[in-house]
Amino acid sequence: MGDLPDPPNLKTGIDSSYLEKIPRKGGPAITRSDLLVVNKTDLAPHVGADLAVMREDTETARAGRPFVFSDMQRREGLDEVIGFLAQMGGLERTA
Asked: What fold does the segment set 10-88 form as a domain?
């Protein structure tokens, strides 16, 4: 099995209901995961989280590493996550 790629280090580090301060803290899930998924973006306005601030802080903390803002219940960002997993896992994606 030496030809198989290492599995991606996928972290769903935070959801937007934890407020926008989380990306700024820069823990391991934020800074070192192969893909950071910020989920439940639909809840942000209800808990006082500012997605623009979260995005800016995430861009800074990730330093060019990929991240996705998503709402999985409504399938927003799902294609990006699937595409990342397919690419990093060496899988062929079908329609």
From this structure: Rossmann fold (3.40.50)
